[in-house]
Design brief:
- By secondary structure, the protein is an alpha+beta fold.
- The chain has a domain of 128 residues: Immunoglobulin-like, CATH 2.60.40.
- The chain has seven helices and ten strands.
- The strands form two sheets. It has a six-stranded antiparallel beta sheet with strand order 1-2-3-4-8-7.
- The radius of gyration is 37 Å and the shape is elongated.
- This is Tetratricopeptide repeat protein.
- Keywords: Coiled coil.
- InterPro entries: TPR-like_helical_dom_sf (IPR011990).
Length: 275
């Protein structure tokens, strides 16, 4: 009969027969119960068990639980050989915790340096222009156009003196004849995306020097950001400019894709977020 079964039996006998058993017998049974409780606790929380659990937690890198077991061990069994080994393990745990803290500091420092380098590399590809009236610095890739007589898809962003960067996209069409563009379909490696005019007049027009220009300039939301990232990382990318009656197809060049990647990298590196 194991100790737990024996304890249960004694408890039952005590409850059932305590009314008719002499007081001395009841006291004897209670004393046996206390002894059995201690023996059971010893089985579960003996020095070897406490040290074993502490070791297991240490191997699992759960240092808080390991220290709890070791502190209990040292308090309950201060003169045991397990307590001596427990003190050594506590020293080892403190060393491991300190090592992990130092590693995290080094990782954080390396991350910050990498981020600073990334920011420097990203922004060095940008052309900056400061709008003194609105106190905004505008960033666009050095290869992106400054004028409307250009076909393509590109991004740029602005940053006020006190605010966070905000991202914009621009789609331009230049030709001899009008399309009166209403929407765009961009196909990236077989996957089609669509950008529509959200309100009348959002796609603007102009002409001069024997040519016409139609363009969209829009603040970037999550949908537009998804399209921009797809274009920037796509292999085969084409854009269809769809007008009232006709359409024209153009290929987005590797130069435009790289410029878009540069802008997205610089925007993110400077703390920009699209909501």
């Amino acid at each position: 009969m194991n100790k737990i079964t024996k304890l249960t039996l004694i408890l039952l006998l005590t409850i059932i027969g305590s009314c008719g058993i002499p007081r001395s017998e009841v006291d004897k049974l209670n004393a046996e119960i206390e002894i059995l409780k201690k023996e059971i606790d010893e089985c579960k929380n003996g020095a070897d068990k406490l040290f074993g659990r502490a070791n297991l937690y240490f191997d699992q890198k759960d240092f808080d639980k390991s220290k709890t077991e070791l502190n209990t061990l040292i308090e309950k069994y201060p003169t045991s050989k397990e307590a001596e080994k427990g003190k050594e393990l506590l020293t080892k745990i403190d060393f491991e915790i300190e090592r992990i803290v130092e590693e995290k500091k080094k990782e954080e420092l390396a991350r910050k340096k990498a981020e600073e380098k990334r920011l420097a590399n990203a922004t060095k590809n940008m052309r900056k222009k400061y709008d003194d009236m609105n106190e905004i610095t505008w960033y666009r890739d050095k290869t992106s156009p400054q004028y409307n007589n250009y076909n393509g898809f590109f991004g740029y962003f602005g940053k006020s003196n006190t605010g966070s960067p905000f991202l914009r996209l621009r789609i331009q069409y230049a030709a001899d004849d009008w399309l009166f563009i209403e929407r765009y379909v961009i196909k990236v490696d077989g996957v089609a995306y669509e950008i529509k005019e959200e309100k009348y007049g959002e796609i603007e027009t102009d002409n001069g020097y024997g040519g016409i220009w139609e363009w969209l300039d829009r603040s970037v939301g999550k949908n537009e950001l998804e399209i921009m990232k797809a274009i920037a990382n796509g292999k085969d990318v084409k854009i269809r400019f769809i007008g009232k009656q006709y359409h024209k197809d153009k290929t987005i060049s590797s130069t435009q894709k790289k410029a878009l990647r540069n802008v997205l990298d610089a925007f993110e590196a400077m703390g920009g977020t699209v909501y």
